[in-house]
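Rotation project, supervised by the postdoc (A.L.). Task for the rotation student: set up a whole-complex structure prediction and record inputs and outputs verbatim in this book. Inputs entered:
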Amino acid sequence: MPVTNQPQAQPRIRIAHVSPTVEDGRYPAKRCVGDQMTVSADVLRDGHDMLRAVVRYRAAGEPDWREVPMRQVDAQVGGVRWEASFALERIGSHEFDIEAWTDVFGTWRDELRRKVEGPQADLTGELGEGELLLEQAAKRVTDSEQRGQIHSALRTLRDGAVSRQAHYAAALDPVLLRAMHADPERPGAARLPRPLRIEADRVLARFGSWYELFPRSFGGLAGVERVLPELSTLGFDVLYLPPIHPIGVKNRKGPNNALTAGPGDPGSPWAIGSPDGGHDAVHPELGTIDDLRRLTARARELGIDVALDFAIQCSADHPWLTEHPEWFHRRPDGTLKYAENPPKRYQDIYNVNWETPSWRELWLELRRIVLHWVDCGVKVFRVDNPHTKPFPFWEWLIAEVHNVDRDVIFLAEAFTKREIMRELARIGFTQSYTYFTWKNSRWELSEYVSELAYSEESDYFRPNFFANTPDILHEYLQHGGPPAFVTRLVLASTLSPSYGIYSGYEWFENVPVRAGSEEYVDSEKYEAKARKLDGPLLGLVRRLNELRRDNPALQQLSNVTFLETHNEGLIAYAKREGSNTVIVVVNIDPHNAQEGSVLIPAQLNLPPVFRVRDQLQLVGAAYDWRMGHNYVRLDPQSQQAHVFVVESA
Amino acid sequence: MPVTNQPQAQPRIRIAHVSPTVEDGRYPAKRCVGDQMTVSADVLRDGHDMLRAVVRYRAAGEPDWREVPMRQVDAQVGGVRWEASFALERIGSHEFDIEAWTDVFGTWRDELRRKVEGPQADLTGELGEGELLLEQAAKRVTDSEQRGQIHSALRTLRDGAVSRQAHYAAALDPVLLRAMHADPERPGAARLPRPLRIEADRVLARFGSWYELFPRSFGGLAGVERVLPELSTLGFDVLYLPPIHPIGVKNRKGPNNALTAGPGDPGSPWAIGSPDGGHDAVHPELGTIDDLRRLTARARELGIDVALDFAIQCSADHPWLTEHPEWFHRRPDGTLKYAENPPKRYQDIYNVNWETPSWRELWLELRRIVLHWVDCGVKVFRVDNPHTKPFPFWEWLIAEVHNVDRDVIFLAEAFTKREIMRELARIGFTQSYTYFTWKNSRWELSEYVSELAYSEESDYFRPNFFANTPDILHEYLQHGGPPAFVTRLVLASTLSPSYGIYSGYEWFENVPVRAGSEEYVDSEKYEAKARKLDGPLLGLVRRLNELRRDNPALQQLSNVTFLETHNEGLIAYAKREGSNTVIVVVNIDPHNAQEGSVLIPAQLNLPPVFRVRDQLQLVGAAYDWRMGHNYVRLDPQSQQAHVFVVESA
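Outputs recorded:
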């Protein structure tokens, strides 16, 4: 006969399905400082008693919890969902908990009310119960005014000279309810098994305009410094530089990824390391550490972050190969393994061996390198291929760097399986490259953006929509001419709060190395160009960046509503934040005019008729739009997209 | 400057999103003994290495884990999902874990293969690597045949006299791969944070036909015993009896819930307790404990389970009121609170006070009572209003009873908020009453059944579709006449593996106590009837129960596919299990003939043309059906439903 397990006291209230929760709390949800944080949960209890609940929260290091009352949001449909919001005032880690308890007085009051409203009955016993509740609470409520209100009600209830109706009125007085709710006692209180985490980043984690350029095409770091004012005027927030470290000579690649380089060929910046140094050095042809410090300082004055590339891989000349041979993988015959994914080979690159017995020293050295650049004023890192390095390493590294400087942002350049990209975001990457370049049709775009905006991953995966990169010249751009560049620029900059372009985009550069390839011909990865910030698309870039700053609706992702256009060649969407509503209509066809009608649905809560003004014209035309159908026509010959701002009445 | 947190060794492999997981493993998933248990998970690792994974599982009390290999199921679409299945051979608790590790040899072999197939290159270094892997594995592999295969490959690889092609062939030999996979070493192995749980019930937990009757209307327990053979012939698996305990005299309700009872009125069986005893006694008018023991024993011989009602509430005459006054709630003036939900009052019933300081004694007494009836041969309990008793109590009680007898089934009679009903299922109730009686239109039925069958709750919430109960005579039955009873019977018995009817259904009893009420007039709850098992609907009941036993497809829930009928008045669905396919078409309109065409979709994997035979006719007609549209017409005057079985070719 089995032994009886003695009953254990447990709360009758259950709190379940808390949002946001990332992987049952193993990872934090991400927000930005200043965000309104909404927490919701199912709060369950047996029986019919009324409940109360609060969200408790605090920033890391704060000794005391703050509390905000939750309210039930679906009572009318028989639900059990409670919700509360609070502002994230500080950058960094926060935790929150939920506490729910039985509202004993509220339940008594509600039952009394229903009995008073029902058929007449003797409620002496009920009133006696209430009296007891008031007596007990009066001993605990600390606010003297509220205590006075309770005592006042008690006096009425005990007064045999007044009518029964006066007793009821005193018991049901909303002022008494508020006073009783000040009672610090929380009968049957339940909490979460453990608090959940939130990481509050600076706003650039969510919202920023990125520009990528190769410093060697702009005259090195000093030359880059000279174009900072133009980048600022264009409205860019982040200037991303591919690796600036010394480039290997042995096995250096030539133009168009040739296996051998000529004497003047500069090599790929991703083949890091030479006798001039490794990951902590600046390529002498680009400048010095001090040049970089000056660049980051000057950029900061202009409100621009300089982003460096963090690519954990070595050329054959990297100092580590001699100083730390134990960090690399050698075959039994002693040969070093270069990077490869057969049949592809990267003969100029050696990967570190993450399984080396000296892995701890390797991790610490990589931490030292990142913090070295942080010390030089670099607060943003674009991490190259993070999905080929261990998850535990990134989780540790990012936390370590954030311990030193919580402003640092890590962008994951992982083009791989969706779930791997999500895992990188969960373990700490601030934002991530996406599949955007390969989403070109209306249904691809609306499906993908809806997933990013409204699935669970919106709590931790922040997209950065690059319209092109040195590795990705999509065939849509190859064949669509300038209208294609306009389409993709407008989409990137208005769909995603973070977006970017790589230089050359503004010149409509569109020739691939060969048909069917997404690589540029004469790619800047293998040769230097002579570039200036003077491309014909920059006027539109500047305007879009300006609109992004002026319209809060464009600074969020999970506020997008895709709109029916009755034409697959036209994509339309609205974004709304507070009183700011932006409606974007884009012709996806770079060759032909497309017309359709944009359906404004009721749930956008716009007036029946409202005025929109086009922001992509020098003199913006105004139109009267309405709930329902609105005719649009976009012609590559004249205008490829509308960005409408709804004017307030 | 913050301290550096030293790197910690952690697996590079992550296992996520395991199915089934109920509330992140806080509750077990439910299955039945004999079920094929499928476990799936995302298995993630950085880089391109190949992986292997197994599900490990064991029944409670088994010292050793068994293992079944997982295979990736979505490699072709770039996924990360792995899956394995195993049979649940024993009743009771099981746990499972997942282990995944890097397939070092498989990765090496795959890269070698790609290089061998690619442009010619010197692969001496690669072969040396492989040789080392083979040497190491040969020391660990225990099976002598497999060890011999590894040694044989090693000899070839070391043989300088044979060709390079022979080396490759030896290295790539699938026999070698299998031998290498016998290596017990699992590099970089990762497991779940903790094993997950499964509860395997007996099959009656999922599949059973229930009949509810009031023993006092059948001549007490002895009379019930006499109808057991008929119930068996009708194909019922469970005979459910409302409370059989002594009924209170004080405040006893009269016919039609009258506040006062006449001298001959028997009272409601749910007003439990009299001087004759409480929850552990049998009402003297029904028989004795020995009668019950004989009833359960006789039923068992016929393959029928006797289910008792477990209603934790007391009449004013219940012995507990004097023996355990501390278990009840009294007002400050000493008055006892009867059950009420203002303005409703249940003057003949007192609820226990779950907040009593003596709650532990109360719980133990309730445990004793259930085990007392288990000892009398009762293995099924229909629990009255479990949602008004604490969740922790049920979780404890059900586990305690299962510790004594794992065959016991608990059916939750909770008609309340969906999430509360789910929580009761999560904490241990074997099956649950549902909203079925209130789902009468095609879209209500298909939406509700799809949610039950395909949402997460299908892992823990097992529906029992009662077509009526002593409390629920739906207006559809009140107004639809016999065809309505046919419709609801066919729907209940073919949609849900567990279903039931309450006696009187077979006589089309359809008169409510008043318009707008779901209560029966002259309800059996307050008076005895003289009943026999002779209603005109029993022929159909018997046929449906027979079909349910003969067709495995009708014994499952999550195999249902709703079919388009092109008529809202016709509902159609297919259920498939192995080679058994059942197609049900029901006329929802009890008044008019409805015609439409049933669309058989390709995903049902039926032949382009197939033969169906109607099972609801004494001489079943056969029809040639096809993928696509199939004409149907159902007329209340002749036939209200088809249950087709697809005949094998």
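Student's summary: The first strand of chain B starts at residue 13 and ends at 19.
Supervisor addendum: The radius of gyration of chain B is 31 Å.
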